[in-house]
Amino acid sequence: MTAAPQTLLKGGTLLTMVPEEGPMVADILFGPEGIVRIAQDIQPIENTNILNVSGAYVLPGFVQAHVHFCQTLFRGRAEQVPLLDWLEQFIWPMEAAHTADSLRVSARLSMAELLLGGTTAALDMGTVHHTQVLFEEAKAAGFRLITGKAMMDKGPNPMGGLLEQTEASLQMADDLAAQWHDAEGLVQYAYAPRFILSCTDELMRETAQLARARKALIHTHASENPGELDVVRERYGRGNIGALEDLGLVGPDVVLAHCVLPDVDETQILQQSQTGVAHCPSTNLKLASGVAPIPAYLSDGIRVGIGADGAPCNNRLDMFAEMRLAGLVQKPLLGAAALPAKRILELATVGGADLVGLGDRVGQLKTGFSADIQVIRPQGPHMWPGADPYTDLVYSAQSTDVDAVWVRGCQKVENGALMGWDMDALFENARTAISDLRERLVSS
Ligand SMILES: [Zn+2]
Question: What is the pTM of this model?
Answer without folding.
Answer: 0.97
